[in-house]
Amino acid sequence: MEDYITVGMLNSYITRLLDHDTRLQDFWLKGEISGFRLYQQSGHIYFTLKDKEASVSCVMFKSKGQQLNFKPEEGMEVLLRGYVSVFARQGKYQVYVEEMQPYGTGGLFLYLEKLKARLAAEGYFALEKKKRIPRIVHRVGVVTSQDGAALQDILRVIRQRHPGVEVIIAHSSVQGTEAPRELAQGIQILNEYGEVDVIIVGRGGGSLEDLMAFNSEELVYAIFNSRIPIISGVGHEVDFSLSDLTADLRAATPTQAAQLAVPDYSLLQKEVHSLSHRMVRFMQRNLSNHEERLDRSMMKKVWREPAILLQKKQESLAETQKRLKRSMEERIKEKSHDLALAAAGLDNLSPLKVMTRGYAILTKDKRVVKDVTDIEIGDELQADLANGRLQLLIKGKEKIKDGKHKF
Amino acid sequence: MENINFDIALARLEDIVEQLESAHLALEASLALFEEGVKLSLYCQKELKKTDGKVQRLFKKLNGELELVELEV
User: Fold this and answer.
1) Each residue of A212-226: b (16+ CB within 10 Å) or e?
2) Which residue in A has a C-alpha nearest to residue B39's C-alpha?
3) ipTM score
4) Is B26's Cβ below 8 Å from some Cβ in A?
């Protein structure tokens, strides 16, 4: 029988070999992330790091993963620090990652710029989505660390400005892997509670790495989706954080955020007083103007001697009467003349007037005779002349043939 | 005066003073505005005096309920 060793012994031996090589115990490694998986239960991270020629398995335990200040993505180039050891159960060596950062010119900056560009394109920073910060607030929500200096700064400013303002704190860690989720949750529970007028989200200053929670997508989404207006107050050594860009109002520090959230009440009080004062002064002036106008009107002569009004009316009435009378007289004169002319015409037509000119009216049995055929020879007729009556006896008659007399 | 808040009240008050001072309103109209303005001014002053001033911490309990605990600062 040959001498042999067990698989376990082999793996232990190899492990020892690797563990004793100081070059393998602490090195920087560059490559592209592939097959990234975060196990929710254990919190450990597994992925393969590869380049054109090769690949190696990597593991990052929860305690290290929590320090990550960016979200590793498929295909992302990273620089990591770690050591090599053997996973004995599978007989495979792997890299145990201690820390990791995006690789490239200003790695983290590049990552942030890309994230910023994407979120901007998706409309998370759009100005028209910004909510107005109310002029006065009764209750301020604060999402920050309960133990941080930022909270003390915020409380101090609020007390100075108006001791009556209530503060509701939603505690959250402000750096590390848990921070994005906790900050987002703080905003969510304040929205759920609903009784705050404005929310401050912030922390004191720090390096870009320290502030990465304020660049996380989770926090950006929570700020964007908040119904309550949000003021970001993150102390900065860098230009911006993505939460600043998403917030409805950006302050440079937690102190400034508190100043923006809680107005100077004495100033507002002055403003309200000044408006009331202007209103009252105007009203007094307005009323005295009206009184003066009324007085001036009442001073007019007509109010003192109302008889003037009647006198004018009387004068006008008399004048009208005179005109009426004159025009009636003219009309009567005109009509009398017409009447005289008409009467003269009538006189010429009278039968008596005709008879004086030599005409007579013949009657038989009191009927006027107009036709010779109505008369027989021997008939007795009367002839009325202007100055008397004749009794006639008809001795003969002749009818004119063509209806014309020959006198 | 329902659905009113300080911002709306103050803006309306400013508007009223502006109207009173610049527009030539009939006496009745200006009196009506003045009356409204006085109410708004009283409301604004009352809002500025509201005080409570507590500092509390908001928790979400495991059963999903929210709880407020007063903090000593």
Assistant:
1) bbbbbebbbbbbbeb
2) A276
3) 0.75
4) no
